[in-house]
Amino acid sequence: MSLPRLSIVAALCLAALPLAAQQIQISKDNKTISVTATAEASAVADTAVVSIGFNSFGGEQDGTYASATETSNAIVSAITASGIAKDAIQSQEQSLTPLNPEDFQNKTRYVEGMRFQFSQRWQVTVPADQAAKVLQLAITHGANNSGGIDWQLKSDDALQAEAAQKALNRARDIAQHMAQGLGAKLGTLLYASNQTPVVSGIGPRMYAMAAAPEDKRSRQPLAISPDHITRSATVNAVFAIE
Fold this sequence. Notes:
By secondary structure, the chain is of the alpha+beta class. The chain has helices at residues 61-81, 107-111, 131-140, 156-181, and strands spanning 6-9, 17-19, 22-24, 31-44, 47-58, 89-98, 116-127, 145-146, 149-152, 186-195, 208-209, 228-241. The protein has two domains: 6-44 and 155-199 and 232-241, Translation Initiation Factor IF3 (2-Layer Sandwich); 47-152, Alpha-Beta Plaits (2-Layer Sandwich).
């Protein structure tokens, strides 16, 4: 039987065993087996946090801002007109800055007369199956710096609980085999603790410049598949043996 990622410690001593804030008294009438087991649970993401945005350039400040305002409103209007609620759209960044002619990426633009850059970015939270739709709407209305998706689960706590239950079941199976090897019978669970890893709320993001010809709005959405979300748990369990 292969037991990856398992750490097992058998305790058959006749002294007190400290476990976190709890003391379990061990005697010849109360022998124990201590097991540490790790397990994982996974599910397909049901929520997508889609990053959309755009960059635009202009020769003078007011004109750059005016043009950016039209693009900004066109993007948000297209998304909300599709039925997505306004409160699903969160602004992340917006800036109007002068171009630095010493920046390699701006040298050509500066020669062409560009002097200002406007950037704006949003996050749109939608059901996972609407991620491609949001990108399609945003990109075809001027969101030329879009593409990052952070996949999430509404029931993340339930998935974490499932991983913990799997780890506890695995710990029990191991303890059962250990008890048999010792010629004993596995008794009741005396103590269990759960260690869960810290999960970052926002995953890594990618942005893709998007350009399209005149018939861009007739294009089909991208083929996008939700990611699998995985959670792990480590359980420390102490069982009595008879």
